[in-house]
Structure of Zn(2)-C6 fungal-type domain-containing protein:
Amino acid sequence: MTSPSLNHAAISLLDTILTDSPQWDPRDSAGTCFHNFFLAKEDSIVLKEIPTGNVDPSRHKRPHHKSRRGCSNCRKRRVKCDEKTPRCSHCLRRDEECERRAFDIRQTHSPQPDMLQQIPPPPLLGGTSPAVNMLHMKLFHHFETSTRHTLCFGSVWKEALGWSLEYEALMQAILCVSARHLAYLCPDEPGYGVAAASHLAQTLSIFRKDINQKFTASNVDFFMATSVLIYFELWTETEFLVTDSAGLTALDLSKDTIFRLAGGLVEIFMRSGPVMYEKPSSFIVDIMHSPRQVLNSAARLSKETLASFHSFFSYSQPLRYEQLSVASAFKGDSTPEPSEWMAGQTSEEEVNFLAAHKDVVSRLTTLLLFLPEVQGPEFLEASEQLMPDLTRYAFTFLIMIHAYAEKIISRQDPKGLLMLYHFYRAVRILLGGPNCWWSHKRARLLEPLLEERLQNQLNRAL
């Protein structure tokens, strides 16, 4: 289990970094550059000559043993898989994804007992990095061969491995997300969760100093890559869910920092904008691509369909039981949205909030149109090429609505919570594959808790 105190301390520090942006004391210790360990002088290597002599002919060629844990690519080609992890030699040479059955992956990634003993204790915030050990090497290798292929902005992470040799905060963020990925693959091995929390603390300790630097063409990619990796870690954070005296999980979204810290991520991207085109930035290709346009076109979103969803989720209408089912939006029996839906509002803040609600409904509709009850299960199966766009759109959705989400959480607004319920439900259904491992726990836990909250609200209204 991840240490709750360590994670809360780290998240609290990140909250301060990205929301308050204080001027940190330059006298704070900066920590030893992690890349120095990878660039250390190599030891001399002595090669022993293999002795020659009479060899038993029967040992010249060993009988073939069927590869029962070989990857799918080798099985299709009918070649023997050497079962190396995380990618076999054939897939590595061809630069292909190496897919195997889930239990095989978990077994091949299980750490040895002596490796778990090398996990460094969680350092104090502001402390220096521990000496490099075999686990660090394993995490770096796992990120390069496996984890980076599961993350959004996929074209960036191969280059980020090189940047991390210069920027320690990015190196620590890479090790953190890699450890979190292994914690997902090996749920029975608590050491990986501890390692992820430890590297998160070190990331934030270093990043708090870096964030006050001037953004330039040479460091803008580092800032953006580190911020995105931290946000992946925030997606896996569910420690704001606590167990009450009755043993039930209590939902207190005010303790979920993902929306508040999303504002800091947006600020970093805004500060990056003026210098992104000087180099140009490695993120430009991904930023110029619009998943929303691709998805709306694939789902054939029409003005009539969008109007139907606006009517179904209209803020001017009371909360209804049928709103818990997206399929009800297509029945045509929902009350039409008033044409003057903001009429009579005297507060500018309230007018802006209602406009934000309508925008969130529009954004959410893009995801909901891909649910099986809307398009049919065969639609998504026939559109696997859309998964990268769906994944990135879902990953950035909470960032784009962070101001609205903070408002509805502070209000405990049931109509806003309904938006979050449908979002997490869509994430659970649409992003259930192994490449979206970072979203599974959050969606699986929050969907039923939000549904229960809405059910209670509807029952009290009767």
Q: What stands out?
A: The beta strands are 242-243, 249-250.
